[in-house]
């Protein structure tokens, strides 16, 4: 009996040690990740401001930041992994939709269709994303370091109220502007007959993507409103599992 109790406590200690090491490694990685992402989006903000001050126009701005934007926005895929392995307490689905829709906007819309890169709507979502991500990653960083200034917490859980709809407007207007070019060029389309016997029309795919904002965006927005109530007003919220 005594020996099994001893075994139990040794096992428990080992488990606790493993958890501690795992959480120390996870915290170190998350701190590094969030600092790198804050820095990346700050570089984007500074490049955009410098471009606008020097040229006095937003035309050509996308080209000047394209590489940095593609790198940091694509790297955010790591966040889906963070949720999947459980080192952050966020839904894989919510994070997955958020990150994938952004990657889609960058790679399959803005980067692929040169003719729309100078649209005002592109500038709108770029500015909104940049402000949001600098706030979000600096919030996570200071939070992990246990030195979170209240104004960053306030910004994280208030700015999105306006920024989220503005970002969505920018994204939807950009996809809408892309439609005529996609239709005319037939890009990413597969017409029958072909050896795979599959037909795909990117134009209709884009219309479906636009329509999918109707059910998906409110879920992300209400998720953030619940987070806001929890973080700023201390409300206990029971979330359903994925
Ligand atoms: C393939 C084709 C796809 C086509 C799909 C088309 C449909 C698309 C519809 C979607 C529209 C999206 C539009 C969007 O792109 C527009 C914009 O973004 S505009 C700019 C405004 N945006 C925002 O404000 C973004 C808000 N969203 C988010 O912040 C996150 O992405 C989200 C995952 C939605 C929510 O975040 P989360 O659930 O993580 O909330 P919290 O920040 O409160 O965090 C919860 C806890 O997790 C800890 N955490 C999370 N991440 C980290 C991290 N990196 N490091 C450390 N800790 C982290 C956090 O601290 C919390 O922990 P605790 O509860 O212990 O305090």
Automatic annotation (TrEMBL):
Q: Where in the cell is it found?
A: Endoplasmic reticulum membrane; Membrane
> In its UniProt record, which GO terms are filed under biological process?
fatty acid elongation; sphingolipid biosynthetic process; very long-chain fatty acid biosynthetic process
Pathway listed: Lipid metabolism; fatty acid biosynthesis
Q: Which reaction does this enzyme catalyse, per its entry? A: a very-long-chain (3R)-3-hydroxyacyl-CoA = a very-long-chain (2E)-enoyl-CoA + H2O; (3R)-hydroxyhexadecanoyl-CoA = (2E)-hexadecenoyl-CoA + H2O
Q: Provide the transmembrane region boundaries.
A: 26-48, 122-139, 159-182, 202-222
The EC number of this protein is 4.2.1.134
Q: Which UniProt keyword terms apply here?
A: Endoplasmic reticulum, Fatty acid biosynthesis, Fatty acid metabolism, Lipid biosynthesis, Lipid metabolism, Lyase, Membrane, Transmembrane, Transmembrane helix
Single GO cellular component term: endoplasmic reticulum membrane
One Pfam annotation, family name? Answer: PTPLA
One GO term in the molecular function aspect is: very-long-chain (3R)-3-hydroxyacyl-CoA dehydratase activity
List the membrane topology term(s): Multi-pass membrane protein
Identify the domain of life: Eukaryota
Which EC class does it fall in? lyase
| Keyword Transmembrane helix in record | yes
| Coarse class of the protein's main subcellular location | endoplasmic reticulum
**Which family, according to UniProt?**
Belongs to the very long-chain fatty acids dehydratase HACD family.
What the protein does? Catalyzes the third of the four reactions of the long-chain fatty acids elongation cycle. This endoplasmic reticulum-bound enzymatic process, allows the addition of two carbons to the chain of long- and very long-chain fatty acids/VLCFAs per cycle. This enzyme catalyzes the dehydration of the 3-hydroxyacyl-CoA intermediate into trans-2,3-enoyl-CoA, within each cycle of fatty acid elongation. Thereby, it participates to the production of VLCFAs of different chain lengths that are involved in multiple biological processes as precursors of membrane lipids and lipid mediators.
Q: What is this protein called?
A: Very-long-chain (3R)-3-hydroxyacyl-CoA dehydratase
Source organism of the structure? Myripristis murdjan (pinecone soldierfish)
